[in-house]
């Protein structure tokens, strides 16, 4: 081979090695932060909290919008693995569908912390930080009992099928209502996918099919509750208690103004910050959390304790 060509090849190889080393060095300073979908205000708040804490800890953020698509979120994780990121903090779109990608990350020795939504089938996950969603559902149920000691008819708007918060919140609600006896009757129960438009349409369908309006509409998140509120207003109905979940600023404003009876505060900003702190402690010096599952206890927010809401400062 001519000397000139050999020099060119050697120079190209060296450049590739340098480029690869530079990419690895850059990726080593980055953490993937992923949420199911930034079309939901709840996950926008969570992503903002992720980014703020990651940057506070001295790392760069790779932001992943799952777009309510497990294949999209999976592709984002696979790309992060290829880049050799330092760690992953994620709220998984679905319990089962996201397990293979997270298992792949664990096998690549990339620490993973899940936030809000668990994937318990992946044993190598460093930690889960979230709210105790069963207790959150129980808080909704206990509020119904206190508001209606003589019994109530109830519409139950369930969350996204396959999402662990939806499963757990529904379980908690039923724990309370089923034990309370027949005077608490769920007259309609269906998923509305955590979406406001579906909360509206499903509530409209439920109300049109019932002989008389229910006393309570309980929803597994605030978007569905706000959709249900619009359906109730459109029919000119009054006296229906509407209970949401997530304590979004818009929902807090409606609790203040009487459109919603209550919402459940699960402290997503605290969850997100704690998730990042747990991940970074392991990245920096190998510190593992004392408990692999760290759960905050949700609280029912009504007019009486509105000042305890995490996002009250954002209410207009």
N-end to C-end Cα span: 74 Å
CATH class of the largest domain: Alpha Beta
CATH 4th-level superfamily of the largest domain: Response regulator
Question: H/E order of the elements?
Answer: HEHEHEHEEHEHEHEHEHEHEE
Global morphology: elongated
Largest sheet: 6 strands, parallel
Describe this structure in words.
This protein has 316 residues and is an alpha/beta fold. It has two domains: 3-131 and 268-296, Response regulator (Rossmann fold, 3-Layer(aba) Sandwich); 133-266 and 303-314, Rossmann fold. Helix content is 48%, strand content 18%. The chain contains ten helices and twelve strands. It has helices spanning 3-28, 41-56, 70-83, 99-107, 133-147, 164-180, 196-209, 222-234, 249-257, 268-285; strands at residues 30-35, 60-65, 87-90, 112-115, 127-131, 152-158, 184-191, 216-219, 241-243, 263-265, 293-296, 299-301. The strands form three sheets. It has a six-stranded parallel beta sheet, with helices on both faces. α4 links the parallel β3 (87-90) and β4 (112-115). The longest helix has 26 residues, at 3-28. The radius of gyration is 23 Å and the shape is elongated. 48% of the residues are buried. Residues 1-26 have low confidence and may be disordered.
């Amino acid at each position: 081979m001519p000397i000139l060509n050999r020099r060119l090849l050697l120079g190209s190889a060296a450049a590739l090695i340098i480029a690869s080393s530079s990419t690895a060095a850059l990726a080593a300073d980055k953490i993937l932060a992923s949420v199911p979908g930034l079309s939901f205000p709840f996950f926008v708040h969570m992503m903002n909290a992720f980014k703020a804490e990651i940057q506070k800890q001295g790392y760069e953020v790779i932001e992943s919008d799952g777009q309510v698509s497990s294949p999209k979120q999976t592709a984002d994780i696979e790309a992060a693995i290829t880049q050799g990121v330092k760690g992953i903090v994620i709220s998984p779109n679905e319990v089962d569908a996201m397990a293979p990608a997270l298992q792949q990350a664990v096998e690549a020795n990339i620490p993973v912390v899940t936030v809000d939504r668990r994937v318990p089938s992946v044993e190598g996950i460093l930690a889960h930080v979230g709210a105790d969603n069963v207790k959150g559902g129980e808080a909704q149920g206990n509020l119904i009992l206190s508001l209606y000691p003589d019994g109530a008819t109830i519409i139950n708007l369930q969350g996204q099928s396959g999402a662990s918060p939806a499963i757990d919140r529904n379980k908690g609600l039923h724990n309370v209502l089923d034990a309370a006896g027949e005077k608490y009757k769920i007259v309609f129960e269906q998923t509305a996918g955590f979406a406001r438009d579906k909360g509206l349409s499903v509530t409209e369908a439920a109300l049109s099919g019932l002989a008389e309006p229910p006393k309570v509409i309980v929803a597994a998140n605030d978007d569905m509750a706000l959709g249900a509120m619009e359906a109730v207003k459109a029919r000119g109905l009054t006296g229906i208690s509407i209970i949401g979940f997530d304590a979004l600023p818009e929902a807090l404003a409606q609790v203040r103004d009487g459109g919603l009876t209550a919402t459940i505060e699960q402290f997503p900003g605290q969850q997100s910050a704690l998730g990042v702190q747990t991940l970074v402690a392991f990245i920096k010096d190998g510190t593992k959390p004392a408990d692999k599952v760290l759960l905050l206890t949700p609280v029912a927010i009504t007019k009486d304790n509105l000042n305890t809401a995490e996002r009250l400062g954002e209410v207009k």
